[in-house]
Amino acid sequence: VVTVMRTPLGQLQQVQTCPDCEGAGKMFEKCGTCAGQGRKRGSRRISLRIPPGIDSGQRLRVRGEGDAGLRGGSKGDLFVQINVQSHPEFRREGATIHSDAKISYLDAILGKQIKVKTVDGLVDMKVPKGTQPETTLVMRNRGIPILGGKDNRGDHHVHVKVVIPKEMSEDEQQLLEQIRVLQEETTATSDGK
C-alpha cells in the first residue's frame, strides 16, 4: 500500500504492507474458527522414540509436528525437553550409575560372590577378601548407554556398605574372641621376628 501526503515542504510518500492481506495479495474470508489466519489451535498425542542414554536437559526435535504456518504455510518443528526421573536405588552421573550394596562384616573379610541390581537386571559381582567399608567396586560397561555410541556404555559403581551387627549370640561372640586371640598372637610373633 502506497500512501501519499502533501506537506508544506512537498509530497511525502510512504510504502507499507497492506493491513488487510498482510502482503499476500489476496483477501481471505475471516471465519470465526481461525480469524483469517488459515490455522486453528488443537492438540493431539504423538509417540516418540527416546534414544538410550538421553539425559535431563537435552531436547528431541520432531520434524513437522510444530505449529502450522500462516495461511497454509508449512508446519514447524516440535522440540521436546527431556527430564529423566530419579530412581530409588540408582544415582546417575552422566553415563555412570552409582548404587549401594550392603554386605556383612564376614563377607567383607572373607570375600563373597553377591548379586547386584543393575539397569540390565541382576548381575553376579565378586567382593574380594578384605574389602573395606565404603570401598567402591566398578563393573565396566554396566552403566547407561552413551548417546550416539553403538555399543559404548558407562560403568556401574557399587559402593560397599559393611553392616556390623549391634547384637550377636554367645557362640558368635566366643568365636570372635578366639579369632581376636589368634590375631593378637599372629601380630606378636610377626613383630618379634
TrEMBL record:
One of its GO terms (cellular component) is cytoplasm. Keywords: Metal-binding, Repeat, Zinc, Zinc-finger. GO terms for biological process: protein refolding. Pfam families: DnaJ_C (PF01556). Residues 40-165 form the Chaperone DnaJ C-terminal domain. InterPro entries: DnaJ_C (IPR002939), HSP40/DnaJ_pept-bd (IPR008971), HSP_DnaJ_Cys-rich_dom (IPR001305), HSP_DnaJ_Cys-rich_dom_sf (IPR036410). GO terms for molecular function: heat shock protein binding; unfolded protein binding; zinc ion binding. This is Chaperone DnaJ C-terminal domain-containing protein. It comes from Lotharella oceanica.
